[in-house]
Amino acid sequence: KTVAAMVKEIHDAMGITVPVALHLDHGSYEGAKAAIEAGFTSVMFDGSHYAFEENLEKSKEMIALAHSKGLSIECEVGGIGGEEDGVISAGELADPQECKTIADLGVDFLAAGIGNIHGKYPANWAGLNFDRLEEIQNVTNGKPLVLHGGSGIPREQVQKAITLGVSKVNVNTECQLVFAEATRKYIEAGKDQEGKGYDPRKLLKPGADAITALCKEMMENFFGSAGKAE
Ligand code: 13P
User: What is the pTM of this model?
Assistant: First the structure.
C-alpha cells in the first residue's frame, strides 16, 4: 500500500472535507526520491547546499520525477540560514537570476531567501527584504514562493510578503514551543500521576491540541488561508 493510499483512507475515515497534502520538507536528494517512491503527495528537494550548477541538475531531475507521478515539488535557491544547521546565520538573499533559472524548470513552488531564518530570530534581525521579494516575483513571472522560517516574523511583515507573492508559509518552531508549554503545564500540575494520566495518548494530548489551536488561529486571523482550499 502506498503512503498516498493510506493518507486517502485516513482522510475518508476522519471525514476530512479539504484536500490534505503529505509533504516532505527539506528533502535530501535520496530522501526526496524515496518520498516520491513511497507516494507522498508533495515533496521539497533542498539542494541549496550544493553549488548552483549541481542544485540545478538535481532539481531538474527531481521535478521531472515528481511530475511523472503527478506530485507537486518545491525546490530551494540559495540558502535559508538559521539554527536548523546548528549555526545561527544571518538571513540570506537569493539571487534573482538563479531563482529564474530554477523557476523556468517548471518547479511548482520556490523557496528563496529574503532575509528569513529558521528558528528564533536574533534581536538585531534586519527584517524581510521586500525589494528582493519583488525582484524574484518579477523575474520568475509570479512563481508561488515559500517563506521558510515563519516563526517569529512580525505578522505585518508576513502579511505584506503574502501580498507580494508568498503562497506558503512554513511554521515549525512556534508549534514546538506551544507543544512544550502545554506539556510542561500538564506535568507540573501532576496530571501524569492522576489515574492513567501517564498514558501517552493523554500526556501528549494538551500539546497536540495546542498546535491545532495555534494553526487554526493563524489560518483564520493571520494568513487568511481558512476556507480557501480547492
Ligand atoms: P521555523 O521553525 O523557523 O518556523 O521554520 C520552519 C521551516 O521553515 C521549516 O521548513
Answer: 0.91
